[in-house]
Records
---
Amino acid sequence: MARLSREFYAGGTVETAQKLLGKYLVRMLDGKPLVGRITETEAYIGRCDKACHAYNYRRTERTAVLFGPPGHAYIYFIYGMYHCLNFVTEAEGEPAAVLIRAVEPTAGIETIRRLRFGDRPMTAYRRKNFMNGPGKVCQGFALTTAENRLDLTGDTLFVCDSPADIGLPRPDLPRERMCAGPRVGVDYAEEARDFPWRFWLEKEE
DNA sequence: AGAACGATCGACT
DNA sequence: GTCGATCGTTCTA
């Protein structure tokens, strides 16, 4: 299956966050693919960004993976209950990553639904808020710290350009434009609070 | 050893 | 709009 190569992740983090929009996140689970089209991302850059866990090259056991080669997963535990999925970017030694904030489920939807809601009944609210948050993406794709540091050029977790790369039909997509704005939940980060490093796709009329 | 806090979510007013 | 749940990571001592 064709997938994005390590070089895709090796460039600038803001640019990579933008280029990931519209691409297909694939998580293999029990031999079957869970797939989501990426619709929202955020860039985090240790060199200059007080919102980044590795700000000012702060290196701890948790952030070590950010200093490694690009194209690996950085998954951390947050708020005592949730996980967040990131892709390590830039050259080895430059700690930076893209947070995956939202996807549109494309395949494996029944498995994703069960991972998100178990046996609880589906409601309009749940349908509308299926995978529109970083904690939801990890819950729906069964990603925890057990998957931290996975190589995105491997067979468990990777990104494809096109649904055809994973044997799915190409859907009819509405016209979309990319929007940019401040990141979520980083009010503490002084000047970095206002960096417009959150990107998302929005339907046009 | 202890304490503070967080790249969130869902329930509720 | 508000607020509580819940615990690993990090820092301080």
Note: Residues 42, 44, 51-53, 76, 78-82, 84, 86, 99, 101, 125, 129, 133-136, 139, 183-186, 188-189 of chain A lie near DNA strand B (CB under 10 Å from a C1').
---
Amino acid sequence: MTTGATSTRRTGLSIKDVARLAGVSAQTVSRVSSGSTNVRPETRERVELAMQQLGYTPNRAARALRVGQTHTIGLMAHRFERTGEALTMKSVVAAAEQEGYAVTLIDVVGTSESSWAQRASRLSEQAMDALVIIRAEGAAPESLAIAPTLPIAVSDSRLAGYLPAAIADQTTGTQEAVQHLLELGHRTVHHISGPVDSVPAQVRSTAWQQTLAGAGIRPPQQFVGDWSARSGYESGRRLALDPDVSAVFCCNDETAFGLMRALHEAGRRVPDDVSIIGFDDIGLAEFAAVPLTTVRQDFHAIGEELVRLVLMQVGGAERHTLGRTTLPTQFVQRASTAPPRS
Amino acid sequence: MTTGATSTRRTGLSIKDVARLAGVSAQTVSRVSSGSTNVRPETRERVELAMQQLGYTPNRAARALRVGQTHTIGLMAHRFERTGEALTMKSVVAAAEQEGYAVTLIDVVGTSESSWAQRASRLSEQAMDALVIIRAEGAAPESLAIAPTLPIAVSDSRLAGYLPAAIADQTTGTQEAVQHLLELGHRTVHHISGPVDSVPAQVRSTAWQQTLAGAGIRPPQQFVGDWSARSGYESGRRLALDPDVSAVFCCNDETAFGLMRALHEAGRRVPDDVSIIGFDDIGLAEFAAVPLTTVRQDFHAIGEELVRLVLMQVGGAERHTLGRTTLPTQFVQRASTAPPRS
DNA sequence: CTGAAAGCGCTTACAG
DNA sequence: CTGAAAGCGCTTACAG
């Protein structure tokens, strides 16, 4: 009667099976599979053949346990269905894969401040080598202090002051948009903003104000929305009543869609009566009732930069040496902007 | 001089640290952390306190290695930026998390047939307990035979005949849409389809044809698109020239947006001159130039069902006993449909 | 260039 | 109800 015989689930093939078939030791196989150079070409070939014949792939869990690295990046997002988040996610996945990293999704929906913090700290030691935050909803920057050694990068501009970040240059993008309208001859530009507690919304709002001020124009009262088409529609119903409104800069394309419909319903034509500019360049922007002039963000570049920032930290770089990367936006002129009716 | 002293990266706290502090053995800690009942309440409390004080969380890699399960679900998708994929992804993540599973993203962009197969088989043994396929682009059903024991579920209808699936009932959804137009008094209904090699596109196209045929109407020539707003626009330019066209059922909402703009440009009004119905109910559908009547798919339910299907297999159920789950769609009437002009 | 041994942190029978 | 021992599959010094 043997003692201590442990039964364990066999996950599949192990390094030993390959070693046996190739007639070498286990760690020669290890050397081959991890790409070490110190292996005689013939030996390497024999091992590689054996791996192929058996269909061997190394066990990630075992490697992770031994090395202390999971080769996994956590990706924190929230509103997957928004163009910006979705495209950034896609780009992060592609860039991570390129570097041999898997990406694990973390949805922070409904996560309270404290549980968010708890979550982040757990994740750090447990299941991932790094964290990319696209949007962290309710999380305060301080809660991230919990995991001070975790490689991290954000595109959430609320956290951008505290952590390595990759963010579109929304200020310049906004300036170009507002400037464009002024150059067309509009006497002022109205604005439908995003929510007041959103940093990117405030950045765009401030840039709009300052551009007007820079042109000697006192900014009109702004309308406050929440990024949604509905909020654009509701602001639009009121804007449509004001004959002085001839140009509107919207915080994003969805809002612009809502505005466009409200104007349409009120019988005001775009761009003849009112010019509209959005932000983001979502797929449908080009196919709005009137093709939408907008400011494109390069979400692909943002995703790549996020991965780069995070892997630099995995490689040893310190958080505070990394700072913020600003990606340029691109002004896209379509048909929703025109000179005002004289 | 000690021999064989191995240096290893310390990931953090281990079960032993907790055991020491609580004054128990390591596997009593294990029992507590895995929720076993065979622990005296006082002992449990002491252990839990120690875990809290230390901020201990179990090492997933170690557990995975030992148990042979990673508690990770692979999520294969492609066009993250599409409403359907994004919402399904989101729902999968939520449902998986609920069950204690992490979700790893797999983008199959540009993956050739063979590498796809290779990929799937590797993933299976290596890093995930199950695979949820939302869309598998170029992958033929046969390539999945490579991982016959991998728990799997799909919402890609091309694979639905071969693997456990959760799919919206597009046939009924289409019937309702076409029927609605006929009941409004339209003499026929035109159709802009998705690409010919897309199964869901063909399902909708066939249902459209059959509904017309069932009403004794010979289906007009369909226009073939590719799901995009642009293809809707291009078909729309031709449709707009035909005075017999009074109602169009589109394969999806994006296509309907493109069509709407083409009609707009041609001076044909919606719904006065032409009624339009889309499919999906994307966020902007309600805020099209004319609020879009459409067929809503319940992506949330699909995501939940995918996770359920996959976890049943993890629990021992056989693939072939699972079959296909069909989720109902919902007809959403808005302003883009009306009786024809007499 | 190759191999023997130890150990990453956990859980699984088994014994008490 | 609790503990001692073994081992999941891998990699890391170390020795040769």
Note: Residues 3-8, 24-28, 31, 38-40, 43, 62, 64-68 of chain B lie near DNA strand D (CB under 10 Å from a C1').
